[in-house]
Amino acid sequence: MRATFDIVALGEAMVEFNHAGPRGSRTYLQGFGGDTSNAVIAAARQGARCAYVTRLGDDEFGRMCRCLLRREHVDTSGVVLDASAPTGLYFVHHGPDGHVFTYRRSGSAASRMQPGDLPVALLERATWLHVSGISQAISTSATRTVREAIRIARQAGTRVSYDPNLRLTLWPLERAREVIVATLPLCDLFLPSLDDVRQLAGIDHPTGIVDWCHQMGAPHVVLKLGSQGCLVSDGEELTAVAPFRVDAVDATGAGDCFDGTYLARLVAGDDPVSAARWAAVAAALATTGHGAVAPLPGVQAVWNALKAQS
Ligand SMILES: Nc1ncnc2c1ncn2[C@@H]1O[C@H](COP(=O)(O)OP(=O)(O)O)[C@@H](O)[C@H]1O
Ligand SMILES: [Mg+2]
């Protein structure tokens, strides 16, 4: 029987205030961002049937964020508006050394997620569950909620996709390593970026990192290498996928775009290497604009980019 959803993602979406104009300007562009919500929107723009599971504040921003998800054709039946906690938010400032992120997310509605609140039927009716290290790191109840979501998914035959997205401002390295390493054998697909695993494994070389991921129990690994493209490995064959050349202006969210697009292409029937080639183009295009959501490309934009290059 065909699943109701191709991808159900679980995590935190936040309000984004992106500083605009010259230094000292008091103008901010308001949007929304969050690793798993970016990924699920990227997947929906690629034609996948998606749902998002989170808690947002029952405030203007929470309702606007839910509207955004709906506009992007992401099912929000698993989005709870919480009257007792705010929607998390972050600021992006652009300095001489790149972007500086300032988060105001502690005590956010999403950080209050509980295993008992999970929409079980949604998780059971999906082909993929997508979660991240950020989904786990935002609170101890979120760590338990992700663990329970994975348990429900595995029991129902829903495959599990996992991006460690290591953020040491959210949890200390020792704790992050403990939780992430324990999650590796539970996922079907592991989507780290080079910097994530460098810190977790203490290994620098990309192929050594892929081996480490397999040794820790991940059956299928895509190691994202920023402007260098990615490596795809099923444990037997390792394939390097070249980057798609672009003039990048903002690489934030490239990895999230890659994750969502890769899953959407797998669901559409691509083999892993073809899916990675397509996702590398989408993720490269996502670096050509500012903000978390606006530059996420649809199918046509990826086709156009491929056509323009050939
Ligand atoms: N400057 C870039 N040029 C082309 N492709 C890029 C660039 N930066 C990122 N990408 C693509 O996006 C993917 C994810 O980016 P990466 O920076 O590795 O992840 P994350 O955003 O999680 O740190 C890469 O594997 C690559 O395919
Ligand atoms: Mg990342």
UniProtKB/TrEMBL annotation:
One of its GO terms (molecular function) is ATP binding. Residues 6-297 form the Carbohydrate kinase PfkB domain. Transmembrane segments: none annotated. Its EC number is 2.7.1.45. The keyword Protein biosynthesis does not apply. Keywords: ATP-binding, Kinase, Nucleotide-binding, Transferase. Pfam families: PfkB. Gene3D superfamilies: 3.40.1190.20. InterPro entries: PfkB_Carbo_kinase, PfkB_dom, Ribokinase-like. It comes from the Bacteria. Belongs to the carbohydrate kinase PfkB family. This is 2-dehydro-3-deoxygluconokinase. It comes from Cupriavidus alkaliphilus.
